[in-house]
């Protein structure tokens, strides 16, 4: 039984003022750019502690030897059929578990991608029953800033530089990018299904940046809550006396985690959609006969925001355009060639080659002015195939059809509907968050623990009767 004292605790556990200056909070006090009063918070330079894995004592091992033999036999049997057992205590994971997770992306039942509090995309669960824990480090947001007069220029990945490849001389891959962010003045704030990352003067001391991550997890909205998509809204506030040219970059590898990017036959393709939404489709050919997946990364062009793309670049020296060359183009020009939209599909990637894409959004921010730039990510994997062969269509196909190219429509609808999603999310959460009878820790924990409905391997399928209708329409 829970003591009533827990619900009469008045101490505020993580006041935002301890993580962000009051001045910055006031600057973001519009358009949901500021993080909420109640949230789980971390600094980006915080150390992610490794989690201790479960182990048994010698005495317990003796007592459980019969169970261990049965479990070992089961694991070997599954492996003989090319399947991975859901419980396998005999195989060590390549990526050690750590306390680095944040709010996952997407709605329910269409596969999920988690995002760490430092910005890395990890915990890939696109294929049912398979979870790739390691982050794909080519998937990043970056920023390039220049000001009138040309005296101040900044170029940095918007994540702390913490991975093995940094510092390798002559590297043509992501190690050649500007991993300059320390994370000391940047903070993460989680209140599922949204999260805020605030860059309080990093990398440019005169530019305040808020990145708001939004996923469609909305009570009683069983359409949008099934969609495999997420939106990233950047709010830029220029506190300097000079006009700032800000170029935001979204890079994405054609991968579903692990070493899937090396399997070959992947294709990237630029697109221009309606309402100013444009980006790149990344068609991924999965291994072992699993259904294919198509990603879409996009940004929304407005009167003040210009969008360009680089449909394909590689991480190795033999690539037509290397990651290093791509970064150099952004540092020098701040955008890509508009003619890239006319390129058409790329050549299929070769085995061992990593194929990536980039979307750039550029805007001018006046002195003491504000600007909003919105990106979106979607993945379309309409058919799910379980290890024993049975297959179904995911629920979102009821609304978007069974084409993998639905990813383009998904990012379009995400970028045009996210404000309505936020209104519905706030309407759902406000009665709890504003209830003064409840302690702060309880309020944000109540919502944040719902992450498991997205990142816990949930599969949401179309009913058999509805599948027949979809098949007939196709």
TrEMBL record:
<dbReference type="InterPro" id="IPR052566">
    <property type="entry name" value="Non-lysos_glucosylceramidase"/>
</dbReference>
<dbReference type="GO" id="GO:0008422">
    <property type="term" value="F:beta-glucosidase activity"/>
</dbReference>
<dbReference type="Pfam" id="PF12215">
    <property type="entry name" value="Glyco_hydr_116N"/>
</dbReference>
<feature type="region of interest" description="Disordered">
    <location>
        <begin position="85"/>
        <end position="105"/>
    </location>
</feature>
<feature type="domain" description="Glycosyl-hydrolase family 116 N-terminal">
    <location>
        <begin position="102"/>
        <end position="421"/>
    </location>
</feature>
<dbReference type="InterPro" id="IPR024462">
    <property type="entry name" value="GH116_N"/>
</dbReference>
<protein>
    <recommendedName>
        <fullName>Glycosyl-hydrolase family 116 N-terminal domain-containing protein</fullName>
    </recommendedName>
</protein>
């Amino acid at each position: 039984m829970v003591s009533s004292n827990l619900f009469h605790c008045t101490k505020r556990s993580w006041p935002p003022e301890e993580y962000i200056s009051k001045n910055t909070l006031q600057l973001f006090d519009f358009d949901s750019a500021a993080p909420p009063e109640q949230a789980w918070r971390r600094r980006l330079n915080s150390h992610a502690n490794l989690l201790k894995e479960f182990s048994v004592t010698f005495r317990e091992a003796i007592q459980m030897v019969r169970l261990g033999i049965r479990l070992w036999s089961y694991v070997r049997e599954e492996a003989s059929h090319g399947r991975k057992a859901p419980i396998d205590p005999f195989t060590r994971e390549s990526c050690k578990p750590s306390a680095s997770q944040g709010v996952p992306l997407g709605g329910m039942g269409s596969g999920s991608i988690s995002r760490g509090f430092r910005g890395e995309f990890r915990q890939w669960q696109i294929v049912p029953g398979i979870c790739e824990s390691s982050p794909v480090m080519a998937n990043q947001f970056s920023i390039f800033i220049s000001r009138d007069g040309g005296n101040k220029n900044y170029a940095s990945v918007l994540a702390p530089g913490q991975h093995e490849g940094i510092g390798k001389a002559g590297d043509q891959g992501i190690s050649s990018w500007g991993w300059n962010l320390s994370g000391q003045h940047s903070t993460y704030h989680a209140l599922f299904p949204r999260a805020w990352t605030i860059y309080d003067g990093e990398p440019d001391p005169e530019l305040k940046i808020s990145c708001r991550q939004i996923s469609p997890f909305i009570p009683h909205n069983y359409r949008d809550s099934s969609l495999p998509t997420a939106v990233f809204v950047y709010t830029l506030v220029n506190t300097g006396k000079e006009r700032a040219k800000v170029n935001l970059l979204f890079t994405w590898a054609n991968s579903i985690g692990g070493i899937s990017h090396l399997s070959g036959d992947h294709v990237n393709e630029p697109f221009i959609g309606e309402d100013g939404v444009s980006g790149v489709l990344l068609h991924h050919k999965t291994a072992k006969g699993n259904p294919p997946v198509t990603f879409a990364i996009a940004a929304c062009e407005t009167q003040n925001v210009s969008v360009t793309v680089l449909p394909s670049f590689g991480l190795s020296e033999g690539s037509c355009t290397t990651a290093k060359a791509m970064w150099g183009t952004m540092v020098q020009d701040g955008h890509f060639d508009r003619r890239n939209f006319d390129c058409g599909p790329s050549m299929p990637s070769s085995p061992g080659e990593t194929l990536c894409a980039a979307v750039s959004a550029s805007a001018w921010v006046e002195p003491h002015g504000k600007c909003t730039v919105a990106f979106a990510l979607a993945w379309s994997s309409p058919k799910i195939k379980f290890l024993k062969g049975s297959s179904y269509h995911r629920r979102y196909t009821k609304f978007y059809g069974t084409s993998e190219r639905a990813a383009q429509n998904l990012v379009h609808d995400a970028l045009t509907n996210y404000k309505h999603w936020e209104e519905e999310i706030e309407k759902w959460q406000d009665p709890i968050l504003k209830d003064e009878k409840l302690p702060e820790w309880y309020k944000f924990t109540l919502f944040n623990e719902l992450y498991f409905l997205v990142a816990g391997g949930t599969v949401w399928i179309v009913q058999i009767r509805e599948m027949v209708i979809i098949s007939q329409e196709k």
